[in-house]
Amino acid sequence: MFRRSLPEEYALVFRFDDAGTRDVHMLFVFVPLDVLWLVDDEVVRTERLVPWRGFAVESADTLVELPAGAADDIAVGDAVRLVE
Q1: pLDDT tens for residues 25-80?
Q2: In whole angstroms, what separates CA 31 from the centre of its chain?
Q3: If I label 51, which of 4, 18, 34, 35 is the partner at 20 to 30 A Cα–Cα?
């Protein structure tokens, strides 16, 4: 929130102990985001959210927020491996 831009290699990852309903809102977010909802490293939803008005909800054990366009080649059912 409150950022005016994001680096190309940016990713914000939220890991949870188990799958549950996870929502993402875009209040006070100034740039569009691609969001991935994962369950056991498999994509169950992808969504591009717009600043201020975007909102989405899905069951997940991991959420990944990326700069808009970074997830263009990722689809539901794809496996995503997170590397630190």
Answers
A1: 999 999 999 999 999 999 999 999 999 999 999 999 999 999 999 999 999 999 99
A2: 13
A3: 18
